[in-house]
Amino acid sequence: MSTKTSPYARLTESLGLDTDNEWPSVVRERLAAYGLLGVYVFVVWFPIYYILITSFKPTAEVLNLPITFYPHEATIQNYVDIFNNRPFELYTFNSLVVASTTTVIVVTLGTLSGYTFSRYDFMGNKSLLLSIVAARMIPPIALIVPFFSIMSNPPIIGGLTGSLYDTKIALILTYTFFNLPFAVWIMKNYFDGVPESLDEQAKVDGCSTWEGFVKVILPVAKPGIAATAILAFIFSWNEFVFALVLTSSEQAQTLPIAVSLFVADDFVDWAHLAAGGMIAALPGILFGLFFQRYIVSGLTQGAVKE
Amino acid sequence: MTESQYSLRRRLDKLFVPLTVGPTVLWIAGIIVYPTAKLLWSSLFFTHPITGQKQFVGLRNFRRLLFGDGGALLNPSFVSFTKNTLIYVGFSVTISFLLGLGIAILLNKDLKGRGWLRTAVIVPWILPYVMSGLMWRWMFQAQYGAINGVLMQTGIIDSKIAFLSDGTLAMMALIIADVWVFTPFIIIILLAGLQNVPEQLYDAAEVDGASRWSRFRNVTYPFLKPSILVALTIRIIFDIRALDLVWVMTQGGPGTQTEVWASWLYRTAMVFNKPGEGAALGVVMLAVTFGIVAVLYKLFGETPYES
């Protein structure tokens, strides 16, 4: 900004006619914005770049000084190793099963109830919705003790299944619990924006409530459903604490746990950790690059994250 | 359509509300009421670490947690871990909020390539926290870390710094990682809020010769207030309870110098196998969380979920 104080100078400046300077203030401001954003993006991406190049360095180069900022001898050996020496295909499979199953349950229940919360004025709907939102305020970490004991000794289905500890089912149940409230919230807000005349039109055309919902409302709600699904998937894929508490073997452990296992007491296997970390980070990076719009809309409607 | 099909349809339509809302309500209620009740109940018991025998001890877990065993007025661990939590949450929320606000304002300008910039900015937040934590641990690594590498190879420092072996530096490293992870969240929420500000108001303020600060204070801020509340509430609550970054970067160390409530709870309940004391700390965290939400609502005068 200019420091000129005379009324004339201020007037010319506010009109964008900066006479003392070859560049008008709008251009200067825009350049400054690009500059600052550029620095921010560089700083934000540097660590990701550093772990990416580490994943392609042979161990010898990782433990060599002075450190290098690009791999001098790029190799994919680290990626081969983690699938050969560790059951990374199982961890990836577990992550996929847990995240997709959770997403399906969360999206189905969230869409159904979100629609009804948006359209129907039934007994206790306000307080029900408020309790669902309040459920998001409960700090999950506070619940590790009860969840651990419930999953080790399930009260209802325990007679049938025995302990759910160290199963993917335990993770799916837990993640559904943590993701459902925000899904209801996003979908309710989304349906609030869908005109009710659509529902009425469906009724006039002879649809039952269910048919109207499936044939008319659902297709319109696709962007909201996509946002909910992407967020539910990412949250479940990334979750660490409950996976740490509720699993102990590769039959249920997910990628975040697998990555943390590269840290031994005094020694960290950085090259392999970086490769595992990149695999765990892949959905986040891909979703971020291609579905950023849905993530943003889902976030601003749900404004909640686990 | 036959008569029976028609009546089935009518009956299904009548059941629309309970059938759509029922499963969600049952799921959340069953799985909230029961674990929360169990949390309160477990906080009243002592479990023998070896035999696993449970013994009802009333509020003794809370007394131990807050006042300790010794003669001190307050449990020294409680005091010091609360202090760590306050430093960690206070600095990371403040820094990421100010940084996020600045970046959101920049991104709200009519710039070419804004979509790409927004994508580039959002990514850190959607990576697994564990991977981000380990990534920062690698950045701060004493021998081969990039930060020491850059500082050494540009000649800023002469000898390497063991960031994670010093209490203050380790806390600083945690805060940097936390800011890195969560600033995108602030940016998104505030950017959405900024888009609610009517453009004409800016023009009017500019014509009136309002300064940049006064424009922010009188035009932007009132429209942004609901988003600020959402961003701060969720950010603070999340930081108090988040374990991932702390656990993989420092495990509360060196010593207990970065031990925060979340890592203390995990250590007590899962590592030291004292579920009763862990549950008591869980109850305290629950109360504090609801307290913070109440205070923030009061300060900003509206609920974040009605904006």
UniProtKB/TrEMBL annotation, chain A:
Name assigned to this protein: Carbohydrate ABC transporter permease
Keyword Coiled coil attributed: no
Compartment(s) of residence: Cell membrane
Pfam families in the cross-refs: BPD_transp_1 (PF00528)
Alphabetical keyword list: Cell membrane, Membrane, Transmembrane, Transmembrane helix, Transport
Example GO BP: transmembrane transport
Segments traversing the membrane: 31-53, 93-115, 127-149, 169-187, 270-291
Principal subcellular localisation of the protein: membrane
Annotated Gene Ontology cellular component terms: plasma membrane
Family (UniProt): Belongs to the binding-protein-dependent transport system permease family.
Superkingdom classification of source: Archaea
Annotated ABC transmembrane type-1 domain residues: 92-291
Species for this entry: Halorussus gelatinilyticus
PANTHER family in the record: INNER MEMBRANE ABC TRANSPORTER PERMEASE PROTEIN YCJP (PTHR32243:SF18), MALTOSE TRANSPORT SYSTEM PERMEASE-RELATED (PTHR32243)
Transmembrane helix keyword on record: yes
Membrane-protein topology: Multi-pass membrane protein
From TrEMBL, chain B:
Keyword Cell membrane: yes
Superkingdom of source: Archaea
GO biological process: transmembrane transport
Keywords annotated in UniProt: Cell membrane, Membrane, Transmembrane, Transmembrane helix, Transport
Record-linked Gene3D superfamilies: MetI-like (1.10.3720.10)
Main location per the UniProt record: membrane
The keyword Transmembrane is annotated on this UniProt entry: yes
Transmembrane segments: 15-37, 86-107, 119-139, 169-192, 219-238, 279-300
Cellular localisation: Cell membrane
Domain named ABC transmembrane type-1: residues: 82-296
Topology term for the membrane: Multi-pass membrane protein
GO CC annotation terms, alphabetical: plasma membrane
PANTHER family for this protein: BLR7065 PROTEIN (PTHR43005), SPERMIDINE_PUTRESCINE TRANSPORT SYSTEM PERMEASE PROTEIN (PTHR43005:SF1)
The family this protein is said to belong to: Belongs to the binding-protein-dependent transport system permease family.
UniProt name for this protein: Sugar ABC transporter permease
Lineage: Archaea, Methanobacteriati, Methanobacteriota, Stenosarchaea group, Halobacteria
